[in-house]
Write a structure and sequence with these properties.
The complex is a heterotrimer of chains A (329), B (364) and C (305). With 364 residues, chain B is an alpha+beta fold. Chain B is built from nine helices and 21 strands. Chain B has a six-stranded mixed sheet with strand order 6-7-8-3-9-10, with helices on both faces. Chain B has a five-stranded antiparallel sheet with strand order 15-19-16-17-18, with no helix packed on it. In chain B, strands 2-1-4-5 form a four-stranded antiparallel sheet, with helices on one face. The radius of gyration of chain C is 23 Å and the shape is globular. The relative contact order of chain C is 0.18. Classes of the chains: A mainly alpha (329), B alpha+beta (364), C mainly alpha (305). Chains in contact: A-B, A-C, B-C. At the A-C interface, helix 2, helix 4, helix 5, helix 6 and helix 7 of A face helix 1, helix 2, helix 3, helix 5 and helix 6 of C.
Chain lengths: 329, 364, 305
């Protein structure tokens, strides 16, 4: 079907070729990738991956290696191979289980109310508001405050002798509470700090997702006679489900790693998490093992345990998400 | 200035079985304006992008002049391209947009300024040189995109549906201007469009593509007068050519209850082996005969355009509205029949196109 | 690195449709008009929340200007006093907060510049360049968002000990110089904000890949780069865990200095609070100026991610 000539007679083309062309096409296609494949791509991701490999990937693997050794901080290059002993010790250690329990309870206390409040707050922020920007900005202020600063302030507020909260309790005729020394009270207080810092942030995330819900859905619900509360329950929440799942995952990852708040809650940076470890978390335990007790190998084991917990949580969430998605279909 | 040659150029998209462009052979003469036209997904944009170097050539070769550019990156091809979305750099002024390629090529500042000024003058953009694309109208943006191409004085212009983002009126104006401009510059141009009117009005030659295959490439007149197959016959021309497929009977083709006469020689060759034939005739090639003289049809709808009138009819004995079986007739707008009326149509002798119903190819 | 992860993108879980130019545009398209006007209850609740958000920060000012005894009084003082400045002085004496602020500016600045640059480069490659293994590498980037900081600090600490970098600022800067979130954020932005044809036009015009990056991609990416810069700076400023390990109070960042504030034998609340205020003030000032943009950035990131 060569059409080089301009003379009409010759320029005519035969009918479309039959589906199986004669041996005109070589059996193996030439594969040229010079044009669309851009090797420069590697150069552009290289800086990221170099830094990432050196400071994340390599340490990540090396931590696994360290966790199989008895290594001390004073002699970090010369550990002795102990196989899974560190893991066995960890699982038999009451400190580990205590920290795991605390991490779980503080995590639940900090995450569940936080996300519920964030959802409600996002709903409120989604109304037509005067001072919209003001409210949004103010609610993000805690997020901009560092863990250290927030914890120090709240430690002051929750202080036994000079704390404003106890003063207030007394003013209404209740007894002063020694927040720091009690198990539940200290964990509650720490959960309050986390909640204070993150609620506004999550509310903004939910708000962003809410605003991408098409207005017709609400109009349809309204025509069907759904009240605002019903609309929230049956339109907003289902549409936000993936976002909610996402914030749950992210908050859980944060909760498993909880460290700065319990470290500074007593004000003086003790790694024990209270006199009887009543609010010692896994993150704090790991720090204590490594940098107070100098057992680097043990600390690495704890770090891996934390990662496993995160994987478990993320995996569980993925499974739940998939099941729900299937149920919806 | 240069010729462009596609030699068996083929493009497979990853993970597809059928090639997007299948062994394309095409030669575009120096200074020629070739319009590539076809329905969406026919491979017309892909073949242009292959020529631009934005798409791989999996098989075959492409030459610009004597140079084999099959594997060259776009910048080594000496081409300029006008994109459908114009792809103007949003943060650069009109002047910077037009001069960007020259700046990259290391052309001196003074020369850039001069060439940009010339192009701006041609395109009537002189007042807008310091504006950003955002501050321009659609038509102005289109001209900037043209300007960006012409300041480079390339060997070939590539235009990928450059008018499809304009409104209908502006599109008609601009297409004449573009055709005039590239002819004046004398630059070889490959112009891709899905609009057959654009193709017919602009092209020195028109190439019709379908499913990655080149069906016909010829002057607009030749394509109109002698479409190479049923698809081209139906694609070029508006309203489309009437195409009727039916059994051979009594020296013609059976249409409903009557027979449309076809000359014996072509009828024999087209229907060999199958006993069927496909014929086509354009709406303007029909004349109204007296009662009983010609093909009886029933008028369904009358479309008054002022200059013309089109009658949408159904041949007698054919169920109305059965896909593609209607016949469109162009007629004098001053004397139109009413819907429901029966007419007798005669086809002008030389205006009947005959096609092989199996290969779909034209039979002469 | 620590709990900053929530800022981290949301990859596959995100449902939300096409990205808009910003939170504002979205509001109009989305529910905006339909959500109805806020009633007095809404305003009351929001005002309460706003008070709760601000009060601890305000209390820092109050507590920073009164002695322990004054704070314990009933009713407690609710307005700051002039002794705040004396306590500033005391805090500056007790902890090297001035140096810490300078260090934090340097560290956060360097991290911000590095992160924005590297993430824009990588985000561009992931969004617009085709190369073998791209999908796999991107999955790797996304996967790292799950890895806790704790998992890498031990080898990192060994590394900087070997390099004699303990207490050196580069020990804090280098490991944080890239961010998986940033790469993902830039990628998502460029996919939606930079049409392929613009890059093709650049190629036809004869631009090299780097030239395309510099002259076409960077100008288009500027809004997202600004957002990423703000978020990165904030995160870097507030980074706690790793600086605490890598630095000492002799050469601290603000967070490390704050952590050291309370370690006196008899902690004096007012001095701690004054120091906390000093260390938080720069961020609060920046936040007051750029708050709107940061809010927009977070919401945009949430939808884009």
């Amino acid at each position: 079907m060569t059409i080089a000539s301009q003379s009409p007679a010759e320029a005519l083309v035969a009918a479309p070729r039959p589906p199986a062309p004669p041996a005109s096409r070589p059996p193996a296609r030439r594969r040229r990738r010079k044009l669309s494949q851009n090797r420069w791509g590697y150069a552009y991701v290289a800086p990221f991956f170099l830094v990432f490999a050196a400071f994340s990937l390599y340490p990540f693997a090396y931590t696994a290696w360290v966790s199989l050794h008895r290594t001390s901080l004073s002699d970090i290059d010369g550990g002795t191979w102990v196989g899974l002993e560190n893991y066995r010790n960890l699982l038999q250690s009451e400190f580990f289980w205590n920290a795991a329990r605390n991490t779980l309870t503080i995590g639940v206390l900090a995450t569940v109310p936080q996300l519920c409040m964030a959802l409600g707050l996002a709903h409120l922020l989604n109304y037509k508001l005067r001072g919209r920007t003001f409210f949004r900005t103010v609610m993000l202020m805690p997020y901009a405050t560092s863990i250290a600063a927030a914890t120090l302030v709240f430690a002051q507020l929750f202080g036994r002798d000079y704390g404003l909260i106890n003063t207030a309790l007394e003013a209404v005729g209740l007894e002063r509470i020694d927040w720091e020394s009690g198990t539940w009270s200290s964990q509650f207080a720490i959960a309050v700090i986390v909640t204070w810092r993150w609620t506004g942030y999550n509310a903004l995330i939910y708000l962003a997702a809410m605003q991408s819900i098409p207005g017709e859905l609400y109009e349809a619900a309204e025509i069907d006679g759904a009240s605002r509360w019903k609309q929230f329950l049956h339109v907003t929440v289902p549409s936000l489900r993936p976002t909610i799942l996402f914030t749950i995952v992210v908050s859980t990852i944060g909760a498993v790693q909880l460290f700065g708040e319990p470290l500074l809650f007593a004000g003086n940076g003790t790694t024990t998490g209270g006199s009887s470890g009543q609010y010692q978390t896994l993150g704090l335990l790991m720090y204590q093992q490594g940098w107070s007790n100098f057992h680097i190998g043990q600390a690495a084991t704890t770090a891996w345990a934390m990662f496993m917990i995160i994987l478990l949580v993320v995996g569980l969430n993925a499974v739940i998400g998939r099941l729900r998605a299937r149920a919806d279909r | 200035m240069a010729t462009v040659t596609f030699e068996q150029a083929t493009r497979f998209y990853p993970r597809t079985e059928r090639p997007a462009v299948d062994a394309l052979d095409l030669r575009i003469e120096d200074g020629e304006l070739l319009v590539v036209v076809g329905p969406s997904g026919c491979g017309k944009s892909t073949s242009l992008r292959m020529l631009a170097g934005l798409e791989e050539v999996d098989d075959g070769a492409i030459h610009i002049g004597d140079r084999d550019v099959t594997d060259s990156p776009p910048k080594d091809r000496d081409i300029a391209m006008v994109f459908q979305s114009y792809a103007l750099y949003p943060h650069m002024t009109v002047e910077q947009n037009m001069g960007f390629a020259l700046r990259l090529a290391g052309v001196g500042k003074a020369e850039i300024a001069q060439r940009v000024a010339e192009a701006a003058k041609i395109l009537d953009l002189e007042d807008y040189l310091q504006r950003r694309p955002k501050a321009l109208s659609g038509g102005q943006r289109q001209r900037v995109a043209m300007g960006r191409a012409i300041v480079r004085q390339p060997q070939v212009f590539l235009m990928d549906e450059p008018l499809s983002n304009l409104d209908a009126k502006l599109r008609v104006q601009t297409r004449t201007q573009i055709a005039a401009l590239v002819r004046r510059l004398g630059t070889t141009t490959v112009y891709v469009t899905h609009d057959q009117v654009e193709a017919m009005t602009m092209g020195d030659r028109v190439a019709v593509l379908k499913d990655g295959l080149l069906l016909q490439c010829d002057t607009p007149a030749a394509i109109y007068e002698r479409p190479a197959n049923v698809f081209v016959a139906g694609f070029i021309g508006s309203p489309a050519m009437n195409i009727v497929s039916g059994e051979v009977a009594d020296g013609g083709v059976r249409v409903g209850t009557s027979v449309l006469p076809v000359d014996r020689d072509r009828l024999a060759r087209a229907s060999a082996g199958t006993g069927r034939v496909t014929v086509g005739f354009r709406p303007e090639c029909l004349e109204l005969g007296g009662p009983g003289d010609g093909l009886p049809v029933v008028v369904d709808v009358v479309e008054q355009l002022g200059s013309d009138a089109y009658l949408y009819t159904t041949p007698a004995g054919v169920r109305a509205g059965v896909g593609g079986s209607g016949v469109v007739v162009r007629t004098d707008p001053r004397h139109v029949p009413v819907p429901g009326q029966t007419l007798w149509l005669r086809i002008r002798e030389d205006a009947l196109h005959v096609f092989d119903p199996v290969t779909q190819a034209r039979v002469d | 690195m620590t709990i900053t992860l929530p800022g981290t993108g949301s990859t596959e879980v995100r449902p939300v449709g096409r990205a808009a130019d910003g939170a504002g545009g979205r509001a109009r398209k989305g529910r905006g008009g339909k959500s109805g006007k806020a009633g007095p209850v809404t305003y009351t609740l929001l005002t309460l929340t706003a008070l709760v958000s601000i009060f601890p920060l305000y209390w820092t000012v109050v507590a920073g200007s009164h002695t322990n005894a004054e704070l314990a009084a009933s009713p407690p003082p609710f307005v700051p006093s002039a002794s705040l400045f004396d306590n500033f002085a005391a805090a500056l004496e007790q902890a090297p907060i001035g140096k810490a602020i300078l260090n934090s500016v340097l560290v956060s600045g360097a991290i911000t510049v590095g992160t924005v640059l590297f993430c824009t480069l990588a985000g561009f490659a992931f969004a617009k360049l085709r190369f073998r293994g791209r999908g796999l590498l991107l999955a790797l980037v996304v996967g790292t968002m799950m890895v806790p900081t704790q998992l890498s600090v031990i080898p990192l600490f060994m590394m900087i000990a070997d390099l004699q970098w303990v207490n050196q600022l580069q020990a804090v800067v280098l490991p944080t110089l890239v961010s998986a979130f940033g790469v993902f954020f830039m990628r998502q932005y460029l996919i939606s904000a930079l049409p392929d044809e613009l890059i093709e036009a650049g190629r036809v015009d004869g631009a090299s890949t780097f030239r395309i990056f510099w002259s076409i991609v960077v100008p288009a990416a500027r809004p997202a780069m600004a957002v990423l810069a703000m978020l990165t700076f904030l995160t870097a400023w507030n980074e706690f865990f790793w600086p605490l390990i890598a630095l000492t109070t002799a050469n601290p960042t603000v967070q490390v200095a704050l952590a050291g504030l309370g370690s006196g034998y008899v902690p004096q609340q007012s001095v701690i609070m004054a120091g906390t205020l000093l260390g938080t003030l720069p961020v609060l000032v920046v936040f007051t100026i750029l708050g709107k943009q940061i809010v927009g950035g977070i919401m945009q990131g949430a939808v884009k991610g």
